[in-house]
């Protein structure tokens, strides 16, 4: 489950309530498309906006809909007490692994982040993915800290943010050389995924695969089979979407794609988050026509 394609589906809302039927539909679509795992309650899944009961319901619905495909459960929270509670809920819901980001209000120190992973790993039997997302957490990992955390028993994988285009291969090679052997290295930032997989990344933690799993799976299959030019071409064909991701962020664009393609109903984001404005939605519609996307 720490190789290939990991799809990160939305957690659509219906008013103030989670739309569990839409959650199940998105998860089932990705599972049937052949993804290797599902990152449920990641940043695209809006975990930080949901209560414990809502998160547990999303996990239970997702595990059922995944039909055997491993589910990686986001458990990020402000307090260690709550992280451990969520880890227990994930295990009870039959999740296969945990996604843990260093969530904070007060800026965390390196020692506090290391202690977070050490404490959680000591209390759970599930493998842990280090969820490095400085754009949402405000915390920037050093490579030395990543290497120290990767040495903790139970830490199985690290998801890193996208390096600058053109520097991906060098970054992946240097980063992997610092980690204990066997640590899975995964990439986020969908627009660099093909380059990262070609450079030897183990897994793509993919926002777009939560809505367009077949297109993402095609890219990954080419990359892992050594058809590197075809993988890069498949990514280039999605550049209209990647451009929107870089402008508006993956969450809002993915929500607009899912709505425009009729996969979920409108108002998919939890307030106070709002979807794209009229100009942004027009650009999403143009991208759909340009690439000839279908649900």
Question: What do you see in this structure?
Answer:
With 295 residues, the chain is of the alpha/beta class. Helix content is 47%, strand content 13%. It has one domain (4-225): TIM Barrel, CATH 3.20.20. It has 13 helices and ten strands. An eight-stranded parallel barrel has the order 1-4-5-6-7-8-9-10, surrounded by five helices. Helix 1 (20-32) runs parallel beside helix 2. It is globular, with a radius of gyration of 18 Å.
Number of domains: 1
The CATH topology name reads TIM Barrel
The description of the largest β-sheet is: 8 strands, parallel, barrel
Q: Any low-confidence stretches, pLDDT <50, length ≥5?
A: none
Q: What is the first-to-last residue Cα distance?
A: 25 Å
Approximate shape: globular
- Give me the count of strands: 10
Radius of gyration: 18 Å
Features:
single chain, 295 residues, alpha/beta, TIM Barrel, two-stranded antiparallel ribbon, 47% helix
Outline of the structure:
With 295 residues, the protein is an alpha/beta fold.
């Amino acid at each position: 489950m720490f190789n290939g394609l990991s799809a990160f589906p939305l957690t659509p809302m219906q008013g103030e309530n989670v739309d569990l039927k839409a959650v199940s539909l998105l998860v089932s679509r990705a599972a049937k498309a052949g993804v290797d795992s599902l990152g449920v309650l990641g940043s695209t899944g809006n975990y930080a906006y949901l209560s414990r009961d809502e998160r547990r319901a999303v996990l239970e619905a997702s595990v059922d809909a995944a039909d055997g495909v491993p589910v990686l459960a986001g458990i990020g929270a402000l307090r260690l007490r709550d992280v451990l509670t969520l880890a227990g809920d994930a295990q009870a819901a039959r999740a296969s692994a945990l996604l843990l980001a260093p969530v904070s209000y007060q800026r965390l120190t390196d020692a506090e982040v290391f202690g977070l992973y050490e404490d959680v790993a000591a209390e759970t039997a599930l493998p842990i993915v280090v969820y490095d997302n400085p754009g949402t957490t405000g915390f920037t990992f050093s490579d030395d800290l990543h290497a120290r955390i990767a040495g903790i028993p139970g830490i199985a994988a690290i998801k890193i943010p996208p390096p600058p285009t053109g520097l991906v291969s060098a970054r992946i090679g240097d980063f992997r050389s610092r980690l204990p052997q066997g640590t899975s290295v995964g990439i986020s930032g969908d627009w660099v995924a093909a380059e990262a997989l070609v450079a030897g990344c183990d897994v793509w933690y993919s926002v777009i695969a939560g809505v367009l799993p077949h297109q993402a799976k095609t890219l990954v299959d080419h990359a892992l089979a050594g058809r590197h030019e075809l993988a890069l071409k498949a990514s280039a064909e999605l550049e209209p979407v990647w451009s929107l991701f870089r402008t508006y962020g993956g969450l809002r664009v993915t929500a607009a794609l899912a709505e425009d393609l009729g996969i979920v109903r409108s108002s998919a984001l939890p307030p106070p988050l709002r979807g794209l404005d009229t100009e942004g939605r027009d650009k999403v519609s143009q991208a759909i026509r340009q690439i000839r996307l279908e649900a």
